[in-house]
Write a structure and sequence with these properties.
By secondary structure, this protein is of the alpha/beta class. It contains six helices and nine strands, in the order E-H-E-H-E-H-E-H-H-E-H-E-E-E-E. The longest helix has 18 residues.
């Protein structure tokens, strides 16, 4: 496997790395490449003393570094997970300081960064505090807990025309919805999808990939995905 891990020539960057649901073998090659080529890795911990005794994230990172055969500076980021803005500000400050002291930085999160992660709260704060760092960030996707759970259960999450719903069990506020719209038919007029904050992804990750920050009018490619993002402040 190590033979297919490519060498990346990186400028100063901030990588927001998804770790997956807890198994180092579910890390992506992109995550491993970022770990190998960064200068330091910021790892969240819920311990006030900045220890990693019970940290799943720290174990995944150290196991990955062992696999890669390299060592990196590990920087603890106290993350009490209380949904408190000041906590996110404190975490962002640690990331910014680490970047200034060490260079290219990885910050890690369990699961996938797109699903109930603090990643985008932190990025909003970093944008305000250090625009140059913000302009050089990349989010690395990961395996979600529910996709891994589906594989363990050996049961599909959705088949045919079934819907898949992801929802918080105990929401703090009014629930807003992001829609993932898949499996369109070629030639379909997208007017039926309604209005909203759309992105369109055609042939994602292929040579003829097209990403449009809006809703295209007519579907021309089988591999077309629409994201209709929740309206946020």
């Amino acid at each position: 496997m190590q033979n297919i891990i490519k060498k990346i020539t990186m400028a100063l960057k901030l990588y927001m790395v998804s770790l997956g649901p807890g198994d180092v073998e579910l890390l992506t090659l992109k995550a491993l490449n970022a770990f190998r080529d960064c200068d330091a890795i910021c790892v969240p911990t819920k311990s006030k003393d900045n220890s990693f005794t019970k940290s799943i994230s720290h174990k995944i990172v150290t196991d990955a570094l062992d696999f890669l055969g390299c060592t990196k500076k590990i920087i603890p980021v106290y993350s009490p997970m209380q949904f408190n803005k000041q906590d996110w500000i404190d975490e962002a400050n640690i990331i910014i300081k680490a970047s200034k002291e060490h260079g290219s930085i990885c910050f890690v999160t369990l699961g996938d960064a797109a699903i109930y992660s603090s990643i985008y709260y932190l990025l909003d704060i970093i944008k305000q505090k250090d625009l140059s760092l913000y302009k050089n960030f990349e989010v690395i996707a990961g395996v979600t807990s529910f996709s891994a759970a589906s594989a363990v259960a050996k049961k599909a999450l959705c088949l045919g025309d079934e819907e898949l719903i992801i929802k918080p069990i105990n929401p703090r506020n009014d629930v807003r919805t992001t829609e993932i719209l898949m499996r369109p038919k070629i030639g379909m007029d997208t007017e039926r999808l309604g209005d909203g904050n759309f992105y369109t992804f055609e042939n994602m990750y292929l040579d003829n990939e097209i990403i449009t920050p809006s809703k295209i009018k007519t579907v021309s490619k089988y591999m077309t995905l629409f994201l209709k993002f929740a309206k946020r402040d």
